[in-house]
Design goal:
Blueprint: H1 2-37, E1 40-45, H2 49-60, E2 65-71, H3 74-84, E3 88-91, H4 100-110, E4 115-120, H5 125-134, E5 138-141, H6 146-157, E6 162-163, H7 165-186, H8 194-204, H9 209-216, H10 220-234, H11 239-248
Parallel strand pairs: 1-2, 1-3, 3-4, 4-5, 5-6
Helix pairs in contact: 3-4, 4-5, 8-10, 8-11, 9-10
Length: 254
Amino acid sequence: MIAAKEKEKEREKEREKRGGERSAAQAHAGPEKEEAAGPVPVVLADDHAIFRQGLRRLLAESPRFRVVGEASDGRETLELVKSAAPRVVLMDLTMPGLSGVEATRRIRKHHPNTYVLVLSVHGEEDYVAQALEAGANGYVLKDIRAPELFDAIETTAQGRRYLSPVIEDTIVNEYLRLRKERSDSESPYQLLTPREREILRLISEGKSSRNIAEELNVSPKTVETHRANIMRKLDIHNIADLVRYAISRGIVQI
């Protein structure tokens, strides 16, 4: 009995010893892991030296970033990416020689662990589309405030998409415009002639063929022909569905 208790105490001491060793190892590993995370290495790519200098000073104010190089054109940027292996490239689009768009495309193809955050004066849809199609991970404008820029860099460094609000609006508006154009071009309503659209509106207002004929100064038979063509083009087979269609298109109000 006593011997059994002594053995149990020895096992308990051994377990405490192993637990202490694990805690010490974890405590030692903690700082190493934090150091490995470290500040985000960044390359500045812009053909305006004054802008790069100001950007470098701004990033130096935060311990979260470390500028590892500067480039004034696309080719210099590619060389820096090869030699310095940055996590993020702050990329201007309109640089001489190799453009920022083409540099972005090559970086994302050959250096998948380097992410590109476009920093540009251009907020137009064409510029944004070209940059994103080339593989840019983010897009912000040069009038961005420091806190947002810092967030944009950190988000990009994680391989996530970052778009400033004005760029998001540009993309959404363009998407909605294209969607509307596609919807309009594919809609059977586009097949109707101006006269057929007019008659569709009058039918949907509850007017008879005779009333419509008198209003348009045509024969009732002509109105009936137009109505048949309308229903054929819209693939609608009765007046009730024709009225519902007109209401859904906003042609008439209920």
